[in-house]
Structure prediction request, 376 residues.
Amino acid sequence: MLATWRKWVLVGVLGLVGCRTTGTAVRETPETPRQQVQFDPVTVTADLELASLNDEELFAGGTSAFAANDFTKAARYFGRLADFHPQSKHRFEALYNAGLAHERLEQWEEANLRFSELADAEKGTGDALDAAFRLAETQYHLERFAEAARVLGTIAGRADLPVSKRLEAQVQQGVCELELGQSEKAEKTLRQALSTYEALADKDEIEDYFPAQAHFFIGEIYRQHYDQVKLDPAKGSDALANDLNYKAELLLSAQGNYLRAIRVGNGHWATAAGSQIGSMYENLYEHLVNSPAPAELDAEEAAIYREEVRKKVRILLTKSINIYERTLEAAERIGSQNTFVDKTRQSLEKMKALLLADTESAPVPEDEPTPSKPHS
Prediction:
């Protein structure tokens, strides 16, 4: 599973989404209850502060609170308007804005309820379409990946929408499919999105976030395959060599897709991709360091094996350091600050320390003269 992505992996541009301040009137008449249902008595605490406000006042208060980043207050005001003023011309906007406020608070279930009332993935436009995207976002965070994939697949299949919206939905659909463990289906979906992107005469009509994300997650698919290959010396030297070669091939396949993500030029995914490449080299280094020599090797052969491993380890350390440094340099140029930057910086220091320790512990070759002490 890809739980570590769930803070930001889907739409990823939540900070660019502002609350709605204008819209069409909504005319809904509450149904008259046809029967009386008796419940056990409960204590209800009324929101006395808002009870006396009309819909215009609630909308103004919610808008002001949202602009001030007071999302708790914004959710209260917009929610009150949506629930108690069904005929207000602001009700659609209030539903959408209440959902956004709950998103900012990472109150995914509450956001889901608000967006679900407004969303129309099949035919919606404007707020109804945007709410469908946001509904899929909340479903993703609630780990309802199949539901999110269905919503996004519906949007991606709509010929009436601009290619930018369809491609965005298709990339997100692929991410959800990967979360479901459907790696082959996810790769097909993501590659279809990239084929659409590459065929465009004017690629500027597509935000670079989404093709970069598609390349990144194809890289993630191969990284998952890489992780599934276990290096087991007990299987013998020939089997170990084959597994190591296969693991290295998968690393290079993942790296190729990560590099494509970097070339798209989106800062967020470029930083993430660089971090993952370095992390894979670091992971392979740890596998080699912690893997004992195959049991069938005698003492002399085991010594030769360990020396060969040591050479490969130094190469991996050097590669990971180089990639981490380049990733941090790129992040500094574009002013990127995210979890990947922090992770990369920590990993870089770790790899430098390991390389230094390896250098200091390396034996001096017999044919290499020992440096003489300077004369006083």
Remarks:
- The CA atoms of residues 178 and 184 lie 8 Å apart.
- The first helix runs from residue 48 to 51.
